[in-house]
Amino acid sequence: MIQQCEAQGYDIIGDVHGCALALKLLLVRLGYSKRNGVYFHPRRKIVFLGDIIDRGPRIREALHLVRDMVDAGNAHIVMGNHEYNYLSYSTSGESVHMPYLREHTSRHQRILQQTLDQLANHPRDQQDFYQWMMKLPVFLEFEKFRVVHACWHKEIIAKMLSTTGGNTINPEFLYHSAVRDTFEWTVMDRLLRGTQIRLPNNETMTCRDGFVRKFFRTKFWQKSPELYGDVVFQPDPLPANMVNRVLSKQEQDDLYYYAHDEKTLFIGHYWCEGVPAPLTGNIACLDYSAVKFGKLVAYRYDFEQVLQADKFVSVDVRTEV
Q: Which whole number is the average pLDDT over 302-313?
């Protein structure tokens, strides 16, 4: 399922997380302006990497802006793990013997709280955006490049295409995805959350957001890694005693490798920091933690074979009120 490139270039935008004012500034900086109330560029299109919702102060406004662009044909979008979480949190799990498909724990509610609060007085928007999120593609492939929220896993994507016939989910798929280790669960976990390794010996790490984690996020573009420190990919450092731990054969087998001669790939999700730059010649992450660490980032893609540091465009995200 390869889409034709119908624009002279694409501007790929990372995780927005409700920062609608920063998004407007970024679109203007990229040369977009409003036509009939919707942001538009005469020669280019936007691709959003998902995670439009949660955390930020203008989630509803960001959703309307993005959906209007997509509906007008001025942008594409893939689903992020936060959209998926919202769908699961909002869906009865009676058919799979669960109150909801995503458990209503205090942590899950805390992550979604801003979205729930900002849509609370807009029942029509709740219904419309739920239906819209259900239709979002999980991945997109164009002639020259690929887009997914967290990890492009060719074998999983190929199986999804062969079993479902497309790159979107339906209610049955959503229900099955709530059951751990089903194929549907694997699709959403790997493509929207990426690869990860469980810390050994029941060790944990406390992240800067205060959450205690048993896993750490990993690179999927590292060929033949040997140590934990070779593959860790997250802003929070590993415990000092783990950096030089040797990867087990099972851990190496569980890691995925996206080769440097594959199509150009754009991802979000990973809370990068510092000056935006490509991860490799063919992979760019555009999540620079708009809410937590302060940048909303885009890449101006003109079908170059090797990604370039000077093609990143960003705006600093100050507190939006």
A: 98
Q: How confident is the model at residue 318, as a pLDDT? A: 74
Could you please report the per-residue DSSP string of 215-257? EEEB-SS-SS--BHHHHB-SSSPPPGGGTTPBPPHHHHHHS--
For residue 293, what pLDDT is reported? 62
| Stretch (H or E) spanning 267 | strand 264-267
What is the spatial distance between Cα 298 and Cα 315, in angstroms, rounded to a whole number? Answer: 9
Distance CA 145, CA 149 (A): 14
Amino acid letter, residue 92? S
Q: What is the CA radius of gyration of the chain?
A: 19
**Residue 209, pLDDT above cutoff 80:** no
Angle subtended at Cα 125 by Cα 123 and Cα 128, rounded to the nearest 5 degrees: 115
Residue with tokens 């979604």: 112
Contacts 24+ apart (CB under 8 A), 187-191: 187/138, 187/156, 187/160, 188/81, 188/84, 188/138, 190/150, 190/151, 190/153, 190/156, 190/256, 191/138, 191/139, 191/148, 191/149, 191/150, 191/151, 191/152, 191/153, 191/156, 191/157
Query: And the tokens for 145?
Result: 């490049």
Reported residue count of the chain is: 321
Strands 264-267 and 283-285: parallel
- 9 pairs with which residues across the strands? 44
Please list the residues that pair with 297 across neighbouring strands.
Answer: 314
Pairing of strands 196-198, 215-217: antiparallel
Written as six digits, the tokens of 42 are 């005469």
Indicate whether 267 pLDDT > 90: yes
